[in-house]
Amino acid sequence: MIFKAPRSVRHQLLHTLVFSSVLALDGCAGGAGLTPTPQTTSAPSEVTVAALPSGSGSSSGSGAAVAEDPEVQVASGDPRYCERGWPTTKAGTRPPAYHCTTVTLEDGTEREECSDEVGPCVLR
Amino acid sequence: MRAAMTSFASAPTRDAVRPDGRFGGRVNRAPLPPLGAVELSDEARREIASVWLVQAATEARVATSFAIVRASLDELGADPGLIRLAARAVDDEHRHAALCEDVAGRYLGHVVSPYAPLPDQRPDHPGASPELRRALFVVGQCCLNETFASAYLDVARRGATIPLATAAVRALLSDEIDHARIGWAFVQTLPTAVRDGLQAWLLPLTVCNLREWRRIHLPSDDRLAAHGIPAWSDAQAGITEALEGVVLEGFRHAGFDTRALERWARRGAPVGEVV
Ligand SMILES: [Fe+2]
Ligand SMILES: [Fe+2]
Predict the structure, then answer these.
(1) Is the pLDDT of residue A115 over 60?
(2) Three-state DSSP class for A92?
(3) What is the chain B residue with the closest CA to A55?
(4) pLDDT tens, B106-129?
(5) ipTM for this model
């Protein structure tokens, strides 16, 4: 993979986006159905992802998803891995996979039709 | 002088900004600075303007995404602060569309035509219960999409040297941070049943949303970086850093089991066919 970023320092956005997010809450106590989740009071582990041995984790939880592997799931036809995500807000030089073609209608007029379809979902 | 005071966004796009929005109907806290004396060919101006105009279309489409997020939070009985932020985010994205058009127009030297609207797009999350689907909408759009957007803009901000581009990127970034916080606060207030349902979806949700970001089209070099348009590889590097340093850490912080995500990330976070 070409995107190997240094992970020795905590990402600067982590504090801004995640740790500070509770400031967005009016308050949870007495909320309609949603209560604060017991969570780690200490900061997340400093252990980097790369340093973790395969199959181990620094996290808590039920472990229900631990066995999942995207390639296996796609091969088995799990549709959860092949649907479109939310559209990005930063499309760059053109919208992603937004292909337009000119089609001729039955009455001979031409119309531009655009498709947002993507190809088959094959992990590689 | 006049150029500094005038918006180059189209009237329909400016009209979509609500008078009770974040800046009381204004597109931004302060008017964008003029482009100023920049040596650019007409072709370069058109190219830069077209990128910002495409972004106007994609920003506006996300207003629809936030209408869904807002309704989902409402139906889930989420914290009122999050519902208010999501409601404001709908207008934020319309402001972003106007801001992007304004930038495009400043490069062209005239008011632009309205962006060409894009078809709405949202995931279905097959097999999820209605309640879980609503939670997935919030997590997918806010924790993932807006975090990746923030990472993208962070890269764009570091590369931008033209004051107009710098001001625009900073304005966008400060709002997208708010949008991501909706999700990260939400996952810290989940009832157990929804949390357990989400756990099994974390990996597919992340794969599918990251795939959208891997598919964006950007220059192969940094020739437009000064204008807030990063090279594809730089943008992807920033997004990958955010995947590992923000998304995985964020889910871990919220108490999720992230081992499957970590293994996937270690293998290079493959997302499948990228068109
Ligand atoms: Fe936006
Ligand atoms: Fe946003």
Answers:
(1) no
(2) strand
(3) B259
(4) 999 999 988 888 888 899 999 999
(5) 0.88
- Of residues B251 and A77, the one with the higher pLDDT is B251
Determine contact: B266 vs chain A, CB below 8 A: yes
CB B214 within 8 A of CB B236: yes
Centre of ligand 1 to C-alpha B140, Å, is 15
d(CA B137, CA B15): 28
Closest residue to B209, CB basis, from A55, A86, A119: A86
pLDDT at residue A7 is higher than 60: no
Which residue out of B221, B233, B252 would a mutagenesis test of the A interface target, given it has the greatest number of A Cβ atoms within 10 Å?
Answer: B252
Encode B67-131 in three state secondary structure: HHHHHHHHHCCCCHHHHHHHHHHHHHHHHHHHHHHHHHHHHHCCCCCCCCCCCCCCCCCCCCCHH
Is B203 in CB contact (< 8 Å) with chain A?
Answer: yes
Query: Alpha carbon of B102 to those of A35, A76, B195, B264: distances in Å?
Result: 42, 47, 42, 40
- B32-70 per-residue burial string, b: 16 or more CB within 10 A, e: under 16: bbbbeeeeeeeeebebbbbbbbbbbbbbbbbbbbbbbbb
pLDDT in tens, B213-238: 998 889 999 999 999 999 999 999 99
Q: Which chain A residues touch B99 with a CB distance below 8 Å?
A: none
DSSP one-letter code for A32: S
Q: Do residue B255 and residue A68 have CB atoms under 8 angstroms apart?
A: no
The predicted model gives A79-83 an average pLDDT of 85
Type of residue numbered B248: L
* Cross-chain residue pair B54–A94, CB shorter than 8 Å: yes
Instruction: Kindly list the residues from chain A whose CB atom is less than 8 angstroms away from the CB atom of residue B181.
Output: 17, 20-21, 23-24
pTM, two decimals, is 0.84
What confidence tier does B150 reach under pLDDT thresholds 50, 70, 90? very high
> Do the Cβ atoms of A59 and B268 come within 8 Å?
no
What is the mean pLDDT of the segment spanning B120-140?
A: 94
CA distance, residue A122 to nearest chain B CA (Å): 5
